[in-house]
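Sync notes, pocket subgroup
Present: LS, DG
LS reminded everyone that the earlier model was apo-only. Rerun requested with 1,3-dihydroxyacetonephosphate included. Inputs:
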Amino acid sequence: MRRKYVVGNWKMNLVLSEATALVEGLKDGLSKDLTVDVGVCPPFVLLAPLSKVVAGSPIELGAQNCYFEPKGAFTGEISPQMLKDVGCSTVIIGHSERRHVFGETNPLLKKKIQAALAAGLKVIYCVGEKLDEREAGRTEAVLHEQLHEVLGADISLAQVTIAYEPVWAIGTGKTATGQQAQDAHAYIRREIEKLYNSQTAQEVRIQYGGSVNAANAQELMSQPDVDGALVGGASLKVNDFLGIIKGAMAATGA
Ligand code: 13P
């Protein structure tokens, strides 16, 4: 059984005082019998101070991006080793905003994933189609490219989670229906089986992301191939994020 995995991607939001209050609120509100995995991905500058706030709690600390070199003359970049050093266990790679706002390409993302895994980080690798691609019937073609050009024999999936985030659902309030999410997740799992094998396909967790909230979380995560959520806006408020975690637990029958 794949354990559900709910992660908050804070994007470029919150200053230290707000972030500390949010994490303290989550710690207070999390069930003592948590049956799902939970993480938060704050902006880089908050990672070191927040690693002390999450210490001793089940909340994983992740980053939203990293570079693939360990160190050197790369002004403005952060290495996987630096993330490990401040207490991060996880990094998001290939978020649609990295792809579409900052022009990150599949070959670059492959290098980033390899470097992050080599440094001992877990990776959340994001894929997803844009609205015009969905409307042109190209959803599977886009996912195919994002999976096959990046993953494969040279990347073990043991420490990788895939996040399916349809770009048209991100920050728009337009969520994929349970069925749309399930169809895309099942497709991704079939492609993972082709790239690896059936055991890896059955074991890899696939999160859904795109306007997940406390009201739709349970329905989405009840789909057989939806193993969690990558949450933007609703991860910035204690009660909203706790509601999503509750939805994930309800979807597991807890
Ligand atoms: P929203 O939940 O704000 O739509 O963002 C989703 C997302 O991009 C998470 O990575």
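DG: Residues 9, 95, 165, 170-171, 209-212, 230-234 surround 1,3-dihydroxyacetonephosphate (CB under 6 Å).
LS: The radius of gyration is 17 Å.
Action: DG to write up.
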